[in-house]
Specification:
binds manganese (II) ion; alpha/beta; binds phosphoenolpyruvate; 4-stranded antiparallel sheet; elongated
C-alpha cells in the first residue's frame, strides 16, 4: 500500500508513520515529491492495522498498490530507473540506447578479442558471451566455464566494454560475479527463485531474461524477487516467447516495450537474436525495437557464424552488426534518442 502524507507534513510526521509501518512488520520506501511525501509499505499485510495508520497526524490517505509486483511498479516510483553499468559508465533507462553485443558463447580467446574490438568500434557499450551455457541437449557445447570468464575479463581490459554473462546456478554466483559487470539470468532460469535471490545479493546489475512461457506479471514478479533483496539494478530483457509459429525460433512481442513503460520504471532491453532465431531478421527487429522505445539491445555477433558452436544461425557478422548500428542510430535519432 501507499501512504500519502498531507502537503504540510514535516519530517517528524513522516518518520512517525514510517516507524508505525515498520513496527507492523512491513518495509518502507519513502518517496519525497516536490509537494508531498508518499511512503510505500511493502510486505505481508496480515499484521497491518490500516486504520491506526490512517489516524496518524498528517496522513491524507492510504491507497493499495494494485500491481502484484510493488518495488518494480510505477505506482511506487513514477520516474524511470537509471541503471549504470561499469566500467562503461553507461546508464540504461536514459535517452541513450545501450547495445550489448558478442557471441552466444565464449569459444576461443582470439576470436573473442576480435569480436570485442569490432563491436566496440561499432558503438556497443557492452560485450556479451556465455561461459556457462544452458543447453537443451547435454551433448552440445556447454561453455568454457572460468576459462571463458577470464577471456571476457581480458576483453574488458582491452576495450572498456561492460561484460554481460550468464550465471546458471547458486553455487556459481560468487565466481561469475567476480568477473561480470552485468549478471545475466537466462530464460530457462527466470522461475529459479533461489537463483534470483542469490544473484540479487551479489549486488551487481542484472539482465533478467523473460522465460518463454512466462506472463508479463510473472516476469515482473521475478524482478520483484531481486528488488526485494535490496537490488534495484534490474534490467528487463525480452528474448521471445514460444508460440505455434515455426518460421521463427521464438516470437518476439515488441508490445512488451510500451507495456513495461506503462507499468514499471525498470529499463527494457530487446534480444532480437533469440527473439527470431534468424540473422536476416535481426537488423529489422533492432530498428523496430528502438522505434518502439526500447532502452537497449542484446545482439549475438560472431566472427564466423557458420562455424559458431552455439546459435550461429542467429548471429550477425561484425560487418552486418556495424551496418545495423548505423541504421539503428538513424531510427534512434528519429524518435529523440541516440545510440
Ligand atoms: C543467451 O543469451 O545466449 C541465452 C542462452 O539466452 P536465453 O536464456 O534467452 O535462451
Ligand atoms: Mn544464444
Amino acid at each position: 500500500m501507499i501512504v500519502v502524507m498531507e502537503s504540510g507534513a514535516t519530517q517528524a510526521h513522516v518518520d512517525h508513520v514510517i516507524k508505525m509501518i515498520q513496527s507492523m512488520g512491513l518495509r518502507t520506501h519513502p518517496i519525497v515529491g516536490t509537494d508531498r511525501t508518499v511512503i510505500a509499505a511493502i510486505g505481508d499485510k496480515r499484521q497491518v492495522d490500516k486504520s491506526a495508520i490512517e489516524q496518524a497526524p498528517f496522513v491524507e490517505q492510504i491507497v493499495p498498490i494494485l500491481a502484484p509486483y510493488k518495488r518494480a511498479s510505477k505506482e511506487v516510483q513514477a520516474t524511470p530507473s537509471r541503471i549504470t553499468v561499469a566500467p562503461a559508465g553507461f546508464a540504461f533507462g536514459g535517452t541513450r540506447v545501450g547495445v550489448i553485443a558478442g557471441p552466444c558463447s565464449v569459444e576461443d580467446r582470439l576470436a573473442l578479442l576480435e569480436v570485442a574490438a569490432a563491436v566496440k568500434e561499432a558503438g556497443a557499450i557492452g560485450l556479451r558471451g556465455g561461459a556457462f551455457k544452458p543447453r537443451t541437449d547435454p551433448y552440445s557445447f556447454r561453455g568454457l566455464g572460468e576459462a571463458g570468464l577470464q577471456i571476457l575479463a581480458e576483453a574488458r581490459e582491452r576495450t572498456g566494454l561492460s561484460i554481460c554473462t550468464e550465471v546458471m546456478s547458486v553455487t556459481e554466483v560468487d565466481l561469475v560475479a567476480r568477473y561480470a559487470d552485468i549478471l545475466q539470468i537466462g530464460a530457462r532460469n527466470m522461475h529459479n527463485f533461489n537463483l534470483l535471490v542469490a544473484v540479487a545479493r551479489a549486488g551487481k546489475p542484472v539482465m533478467l531474461k523473460r522465460g518463454w512461457s512466462a506472463t508479463f506479471d510473472e516476469f515482473l514478479l521475478a524482478a520483484e524477487y531481486m528488488m526485494n533483496e535490496g537490488n534495484q539494478q534490474i534490467i528487463l530483457c525480452e528474448r521471445g516467447i514460444r508460440t505455434h509459429e515455426t518460421y521463427v525460433r521464438n516470437t518476439l512481442p515488441l508490445a512488451i516495450v510500451p507495456a513495461v513503460k506503462k507499468k514499471s520504471h525498470l529499463p527494457i532491453v530487446i534480444d532480437p537474436s533469440h527473439g527470431t532465431g534468424h540473422a536476416y531478421m535481426v537488423p529489422s527487429m533492432c530498428r523496430a525495437a528502438v522505434a518502439a522505445g526500447a532502452d537497449g539491445l542484446l545482439i549475438e555477433v560472431h566472427p564466423d557464424p557458420e562455424h559458431a558452436l552455439t546459435d550461429g544461425a542467429q548471429s550477425l557478422t561484425p560487418e552486418t552488426f556495424a551496418a545495423t548500428m548505423r541504421e539503428v542510430s538513424r531510427v534512434a535519432e528519429a524518435v529523440g534518442r541516440s545510440v
